[in-house]
Amino acid sequence: RGKRAFIAGVADDNGYGWAIAKALAAAGADILVGTWVPALNIFETSLRRGKFDGSRRLPNGSLMEIVKVYPLDAVFDSPEDVPEDIRTNKRYAGSSNWTVKEVAESVKNDFGSIDILVHSLANGPEVTKPLLETSRKGYLAALSASSYSYISLLQHFLPIINPGGATISLTYIASERSIPGYGGGMSSAKAALESDTKVLAFEAGRKKQIRVNTISAGPLGSRAAKAIGFIEKMIEYSYTNAPLQKELLADEVGNTAAFLVSPLASAVTGSVVYVDNGLNTMGLAT
Ligand code: NAD
Prior knowledge:
Layout: E1 4-8, H1 16-26, E2 30-36, H2 37-48, H3 53-56, E3 66-72, H4 84-87, H5 90-93, H6 100-111, E4 114-119, H7 136-157, E5 161-171, H8 186-208, E6 211-217, H9 223-228, H10 231-241, H11 250-260, E7 272-275
Parallel strand pairs: 1-2, 1-4, 2-3, 4-5, 5-6, 6-7
The chain binds nicotinamide-adenine-dinucleotide.
Residues 9-11, 14-17, 36, 39, 72-75, 120-123, 145, 170-172, 217, 219-220, 222-225 line the site of nicotinamide-adenine-dinucleotide (NAD).
């Protein structure tokens, strides 16, 4: 049997989640995705109308099939956590069972188990504000959407991840070096995510022999990154200063993710793996 992957954080064909889905599909996995509820409609419509067909093409010429799209809002663990304003929001009204616990239950009912869990989502409402000007609410929201969301997903999916399975998330070097402009507590959220990777690798490893790694990716002009405001500058900075002076392709992150969740990486867990053209190794801008 082929492997089954659940990828949380796919809502268009530009981001890392999409590229990871493609790399896993190319390797023969069945693809399930979790799409943020407010983005669900446009994503499903675009998929249906063939807007992504060009970017669904796999190296063997076939088109990636997404077996099922699940609505997901990873800042809510179960229905009791959903406040009134979200419950009655018209962008949420058409969907149901989108809290983390319910999504895990739905996947279990539909397919029984998965082998691969991917977390490719982040959100920080105050990302454009310096940390020094970030509110408590904004900071905690960044941690909730970008860090705890991973703990919650792993917590709820762990019972249905087959032994020997693997999970991966996406992080950014702003966790360990100061990147002015990556504010609102997003740098803190990535630091938490990387630390949690080590602790969760131990816990999930001992409990079910499941591996937990994170990819520290270089800059990509995704929808989320464009919302931060300085992504073009970061891409240019990387091009100028990294050991490898080339564009960083989302597919390169996808391929590394496919390696890390495969048996080829069977002894790799708790790691932060850099896929950034080597930029993280530089100590002097050139
Ligand atoms: P993206 O826009 O493709 O992905 C982010 C996704 O998160 C979106 O689909 C969005 O709908 C979803 N999302 C936001 N809040 C959510 C919630 N509460 N519940 C469920 N989904 C939610 O952008 P991306 O840049 O590919 O981001 C994917 C991951 O890669 C993120 O963790 C990001 O921090 C990380 N990353 C990105 C870069 C970059 O330069 N783009 C660099 C390093 C790491």
